[in-house]
Each structure stands twice: as structure tokens, then as C-alpha cells.
Amino acid sequence: MYSISSEDADSYSCTVKGCENLRSPAVYKPKRTSVSVSPSGEIVEDSSVTLTCSSDANPPVQSYTWYKKNGGGYQIMTGPQHVFNQIQSSDSGEYYCEAQNEMGTDRSRTINMDVKYGPKSTSVSVSPSGEIVEGSSVTLTCSSDANPPVQSYTWYKKNGVYYPSTTYMTTGPHLVFNQIKSSVTGEYYCEAWNGMKTGRSESINVNVRCE
């Protein structure tokens, strides 16, 4: 005769009747499932990053499944490790794993992957669009995608002359000409800096027509 006892809701062992002090090893579904990130610390674009799923289970975990949260979440990988050889900004998001053995399944908490990167897609736009007439108000705007966000913008004219922010009442990403003059005609570009790298825009031609 055999007896089966439950040590807890998900852990079971058995003994031979009359030898209850000699229990079989407990069997249980995965528990304490967790995700670790290597290397630890800030995650920078193009670096190598490994997520590792760990779980306590008996019998051992048979399969691991990785998910990225995207509304309802979707499966992206199987196996105890998910390796990003050259991680990209598009890999940012929340991840979790599931561990499964023949007794059941357990899910880890989510971890947030925040990939840092320097300014990119830096560009200059002109407002208002269309012909620029001397004496009108014109604003050049520098835009850039970066994480962390851009900390400073610098404006240049193609002839190498630097325009300090005080000269044209520039604040942050904007270079403002309140009463533009024909002498302003030329090619302009901006640089965006976020503490990691600098991103430079293509030059844009500002052609001021005399009245």
C-alpha cells in the first residue's frame, strides 16, 4: 500500500505505508521563476545583452518561453536565455518568461528593458513653409530621436559661422529670425547632443527674397 501526501498546494511526495518517515523527493511545478539581465547596469544600443530565466522545479523545467509585452504580449523566443547580440532601441519594452514542467507552469515578473541611444533621425524644418520674404518671421526647428532626450542643440551656418542663441533669440531646438534679412541667406544645419553622442542634421537652404 502507498500513501500520497501534499506538502503544499503544488508539492507532492509519497511513502510506503508503515514507513511514513521515508518520503520520496517532493515533486512540484516551477516556482520562484525570475529573470536576470547580464551585464547589469545601463543598456546601450548595439551592445550584447542576455536575459536569463531561472526557476525552481522538480522534475526540472522542461521548457522556457519568452514574451514581450505588447498589449496582450506575444511569444518571441524559447530556451532559458534570450540573447540580443546587438540590441536596438526597438527592443525596449517589458519582458517576462514562463517555465514549465509536467506538473505545471509558472511566470516571472516583468522586467523593463530601456535601451539608451544617441540622437538619430536629426532634421531641420522651416516654418512657415514656402517662399521666405525679407522682414518676415521665420523659425528653424531641430528635431531628433534620442534616449535619454536631447540636452542641447547647436546651430551652424555652412560657412562655418556659429550663431549663438542670444543673437537670434534661440531657445532650445528653435532658431528664430523675427525680421529676417537677406544676409541670412545660406545653408543651415543643427547638432543634437544627449550626453552620449551627437547627431547632425542634413543642411537646409534658407533663401531670403528681397522686397
Automatic annotation (TrEMBL):
Residues 30-112, 119-207 form the Ig-like domain. It comes from the Eukaryota. PROSITE patterns: IG_LIKE. Transmembrane segments: none annotated. Pfam families: Ig_2, Ig_3. SMART domains: IG, IGc2. This is Ig-like domain-containing protein. The lineage of its organism: Eukaryota, Metazoa, Chordata, Craniata, Vertebrata.
